[in-house]
Amino acid sequence: MDTKQEKEIVEFWEKEKIYKTDLSNKNLFPIDTPPPTVSGAMHMGHAFSYSQQDFIARFHKMKTGVFYPFGTDDNGLPTERLVEKINNVKSKNMSRKEFIELCLKTLKKITPAFVQDWKNLGMSCDFEMSYSTIDKNSQKISQKSFIELYKGGEIYEKKVTTIWCPECQTAIAQAELEDKKLSSLFSTLKFSCDGKDLLIATTRPELLPACVAVFVNPDDKRYTKLIGKKAKVPFFDYEVPIIADKSAEMEKGTGVLMICSYGDRFDVDAINRHKLKPNVILDKNGRLTEGKYKGMKIKEARKKILEDFKNMNLISEQKEISHVVNVHDKCGTEIEFIPTEQWFIKIIDKKKIFIEQGKKIKWYPEFMHKRYDNWVNGLEWDWSISRDRHFGIPIPVWKCDKCNELIFPSEKDLPVDPLEIKKKCPKCNSLAVPESKVLDTWATSSLTPQIASSLVNDKIKLPFSLRPNAHDIIRTWAFYTIVKSYLHKKQIPWENIMISGIVSLGGEKMSKSKGNVIAPQNIIEKYGADALRFWAAGSKLGEDLDYQEKDLVTGKKVINKLENAAKFVFMNLENYRGEKPKKLEPLDELFLSNLNEVVKTITESFETYEYNKARAEIENFFWKYFCDNYLEMVKKRVYQGTGEKKLSAQYTLYNSLLTILKLIAPIMPFVTEKIYQNYFKKNEKVKSIHLCEWPEFDKKKKFSKDFDILIEDLTIVRQEKSEKKLSLNSPIEKFTTPNHKIILSYLDDFKSASGAITIDLGKEHKVNFPKAGTEKVE
RNA sequence: GGACCUGUAAGCUAGCGGUACAACUGACUCGUUUACACCGAGUAUUCCGAGGUUCAACUCCUCGCAGGUCCACCA
Asked: HEC string of A377-443?
């Protein structure tokens, strides 16, 4: 099995439409596949988590059938940047419509190569059933969602002070924030009160002209006398009130806190709480709008003002501190707080409901549910869904300046770009102003179940059976999807959610920014996708896995063993055409009953998302039971045997190998397909192993532990031989065992594998070699 | 600071209230059979620490130590 063969199999699947959705099947298991962002290529984390979801998908495909589409997320900043780069354009210089058209065109060109990685990994999605979050259909669904929610009173527009990214020049959501450790200058400035110095420490001196108040802790004896008085802002020369507020921590800085509009989120709260009048001095580009430093960018102004203060001796102390600031996760820029008009979806009033909705979903693993609860409980703001970006799905609304009327397009006209269409106000007939903002990308990707079901004319309804979700986007993708599903349909979007862990390298998360990434494409090239998938099945769902290249060897060995076992089996099945003997030999019966138990265990494991258990179980059964012991015991019977006894072995070999292949097919789709095509297809009618039905557990079959006893005794024989440094096929004169009675039931096969001539009953195991037996036997 | 997760052989991971047959990789010692040296057999080493519950704890509880993830902290 090599990479070339894997690629041929991918082509075979595609050509034969093995993964085509069968809509006539009423029991489909619908999966809300995560759409990866088209930028760069598939990384190890993808390979890991998509493999894991594919194990489950393939299992359900064989069991009942799946609805398993594939999408790409092309609606955010990464796509915008990529398209700009590829076409060497600036979106700002184009109309939004033009740019989106260019995106669609570019994506059409680059998406196939991008998606190929997922195909090469062996994903069993129906790739003909695919969407992009920026395509016309997604735009339509997203805009429709906006209109519906607005009309239902769940969306409002408001001028509020929100998180603003001066680099991307857009409002962003709480969920898009990231922490970044920075070192800053912590300067103690000389304010004054009653002619005396009042020292205040800050890292943001450029906001001094926006200072609206000074807080001291009411319990802080140093400053109680000052409460109610005015503090004079140095250099800018104006006065602000000194207010008692518990939020001022006595130990921090000088214990005096300056409140600016707006230095951080805390300032926003403080100003609202004390009904202070803000004086905003930052514009949307992050430049100062007033005074001596007008037009300067924040950092530039900060530097300049500190220089000036130094010269005027207004700084009493200065030190470097290391502190953590919020940055925009897309660009790493420190965020600001600026009052702007934005659209919001009401979520704060429904926190309890969302917790309830979360409880209705089964979380795998269970503890991930707590992360969801944690996030919902910690929410402080409504979901800001508008972005002041050029690229994205337009907010479908026009506003009449005169009568404040909002005008929405009718559903049949969707998708629309308001900037491209002139609308008149139905009340006053004056020209309405088109909304220029676009929707947050999550406002669209939170609709993936609806987008997916639209691909089949809504024949697949919510809730879906499964959402595979990365752990770090529980707070965004999972949460927002639950929100939208509730707001639109008052229901949960899916019954189950499975959450994968992360891939680490030497204990650290593999990530581009840390530079410790390993390309899965190279691993597939070297070891094959099956080996990579086998590796990904090696840890529990939700657990992190430390990557080591040598672990790929394990999977590679299993692939090899499977191929060799198949080769051996079919070497002895030359004239076998699937016939069943009248009566099975006891050993064959016994082995099949053991296999039946394995079918049960593995089925249950996949049903509960414990693919790792399934992997361990099937690997162990195949290797230890089938290869090392069953094959060893029946070898001579198929080589030299005749008639019914031989036929019984052939029947058992054929059927147990086929069952084993099916059980391992969800994890290793390539090698199982190859073996199936090479050996089984001519007898079985089904054209791919992945279209075969999942093996059924037969309740009537009696399970017996005898096989374990046979293994136990064989092991003792082997141990003895090993200790005596004899070859494993050397004969034994007499084997004494307490399991005498059981062995007798399978006598010939046991003798064949052990080399024993007679079997005796005895309290303890004993192996008697022929007289010359201490020597090596010719 | 809060929430959650993790701590098992040299390494990566399972597992379970009743001796870890621990599995796999690696090491070492043997063997090699009409599928397989990407093979077979064997050997060695072990449940982070301290308490508690229990007849019995690697497993449950508490505390501690260490690592991780997400959130908060941003004067």
From this structure: HHCCCCEECEECCCCCCECCCEECCCCCCEECCCHHHCCCCHHHCCCECCCCCCECEECCCEECHHH
Which nucleotide is the nearest neighbour of A509, by CA and C1'? B68
pLDDT digits (tens, 9 = 90+) for A709-768: 888 888 888 878 877 777 777 788 888 888 888 889 998 888 888 888 888 888 888 888
Reported ipTM: the value is 0.92
CA of A545 and C1' of B45: distance in angstroms?
24
Sign of CA dihedral A662, A668, A674, A678: negative
CA distance A183 to A187: 13
Chain B bases closer than 7 A to any CB of the protein? 2-6, 11-15, 23-26, 30-36, 38-43, 67-75
* Alpha carbons within 13 A on the beta-carbon side of A79: 31
Measured between alpha carbons, how far is A341 from A41 in angstroms, rounded to an integer? Answer: 37
Where do the DSSP E strands lie in A479-548?
494-500, 503-505, 508-509, 545-546
Q: What is the mean pLDDT of chain A?
A: 90
Widest pairwise Cα distance in chain A: 114
Closest protein residue to B37 (Cα–C1'): A557
Tell me the three state secondary structure of residue A23: coil
Q: Which residue's C-alpha is at the least distance from the C1' of B3?
A: A374
pLDDT at A705 over 90: no
A69, A452 Cβ separation under 8 angstroms = yes
A538 CA to B55 C1' distance (Å): 37
